[in-house]
Amino acid sequence: MILPFATQNEGKLNEAREILGPLGIEVESMNLDLAEPDRGTIEAVTMEKLRQVREMGFSRVMVDDAGIFFAAYPHFPGILTKRVFQGIGYKGIMKLLDGETRKAWFEGAVAVLWDGETVAFSAQTPGRLLKTSPDRIQPEPGFPFNSIFIPHGDHRTLSEMSAEERAHYSYRGKVLKQVARWLSERTEGDGAARK
């Protein structure tokens, strides 16, 4: 079964391939420029992206959206994560959290369009952010918060973990497994899924 993934993030594409490949789903890159809403929930953003892709004439696709949330600030940065980080960087993030709780969580959603049906799944990875000097942070391309995020139940940042260790905590991994189950229910009995 082939599932196109509309993302421009190589890290997300590779993670989807690692998780879905062994489950019989071949993830293909679909490079589309989609508008990202600046309000609403993570799940609502994925459904809006799905709407855009559907209007382009595609009948099978997967889209995703994710963000980090700081317990100190309700619903923030959330869907604005990328824009906030691009604007203020590690220095601004550390200032925002100075004197505040470091509790945070990643939340991600994946939405799928499959022959007229749509569905969205979401999950979270709870944890906390390191308190450190911005000039000591080694950014991870495509995932800037991995260098300062420690998942609940561990003492290391995501950047310090192997891919297998990260998978244990990954909200995206949880969501993609739900996607695989949902797709398998739709393709049982018709042999190979249509392209």
Automatic annotation (TrEMBL):
Entry-linked Pfam families: Ham1p_like
Keyword Acetylation appears in the UniProt entry: no
Gene Ontology cellular component list: cytoplasm
Gene Ontology terms describing biological process: nucleoside triphosphate catabolic process
Keywords on record: Hydrolase
InterPro entries reported in the protein's UniProt record: ITPase-like_fam, RdgB/HAM1
Matching Gene3D superfamilies: 3.90.950.10
Tagged with keyword Hydrolase: yes
Entry GO MF terms: nucleoside triphosphate diphosphatase activity
Family in the record: Belongs to the HAM1 NTPase family.
Protein name stated in the entry: DITPase
Gene source species: Melghirimyces profundicolus
